[in-house]
Specification:
By secondary structure, this protein is an alpha+beta fold. It is built from four helices and twelve strands, in the order βαβαβααβββββββββ. The chain has a single domain, classed as Jelly Rolls (Sandwich). Strands 1, 2, 3, 4, 5, 6, 9, 11 and 12 form a nine-stranded mixed sheet that branches. A three-stranded antiparallel sheet has the order 8-7-10, with no helix packed on it.
Length: 224
């Protein structure tokens, strides 16, 4: 398998698929969860992005091993509603990482990759928090953090676009712009954050995202 800091799957979804996914995410508005409704974030209320929602639970929003808080019904609904998108993921990711990868599956008891949704407010958002994507190690035993990768495919971007900000050598801040159709992948230990953005009040920013872990047996697991 190959290892990298950044990589991308160029033709991850077609323009038609992307638009269908965008329409579907919008139609599932009742299932979006405001980030402040997660107990872990409630306490930070004044710092919260008031326009930030998730479709599907992400484990970083939950307390460690709080399996009870995972909306299992929604997880199964997402699997059904976004079947084509997950099929793309599960077939294209192993191919991208290399021939020796044995396959790619969901964890039975963790959330499946989902969506971040920002509703426009017309105001500049506060910068997001720098972090590494290592939450999996708090949920599953014997995780080798070096084998966690993160991915994003932009589904709907504001006119000003969407980016990932990351810290490189000598603490230099860098910006990676997202492009429609691509699956952007980066190493989970890279220090990064959601790019600062301004979204007009009639716009939304939707990204399909999640993480992949490659275990000792070269089997890939995807999760949110
Ligand atoms: Fe992250």
């Amino acid at each position: 398998m190959k290892k990298f800091l950044f990589s991308e799957i160029e033709n991850f979804i077609t323009e038609k698929e992307r638009q269908e996914v965008a329409t579907k995410v919008m139609s599932l508005k009742d299932d979006w969860k405001w980030i402040g409704d997660y107990p872990k974030y409630k306490v930070l209320e004044e710092d919260l992005c008031v326009n930030q929602y998730l479709l599907g639970d992400a484990i970083y929003c939950l307390y460690d091993k709080d399996y009870e808080s995972i909306n299992v019904e929604l997880r199964e609904k997402l699997k059904k509603e976004f079947k084509g998108l997950y099929l793309n993921l599960i077939t294209k990711l192993p191919k991208h990482f290399g021939v020796d990868i044995k396959g790619c599956k969901f964890y039975d008891d963790l959330p499946v990759p989902g969506f971040h949704v920002f509703h426009g407010s017309g105001e500049d958002e506060e910068p997001f928090e720098w972090h590494q994507d290592t939450s999996l190690a708090n949920w599953v035993d014997n995780i080798y953090q070096d084998m966690i990768y993160s991915f994003v495919s932009p589904i709907l971007l504001p006119k000003t676009g969407g980016t990932l900000e990351w810290i490189g050598s000598l603490n230099k801040e860098n910006i990676m712009p997202y492009e429609y159709g691509k699956l952007h992948i980066w190493h989970g230990l890279l220090k990064h954050r959601i790019g600062r953005h301004t979204i007009a009040d009639d716009e939304s920013r939707i990204t399909f995202q999640g993480h992949v872990y490659i275990d000792n047996n070269k089997l890939m697991h995807v999760f949110f």
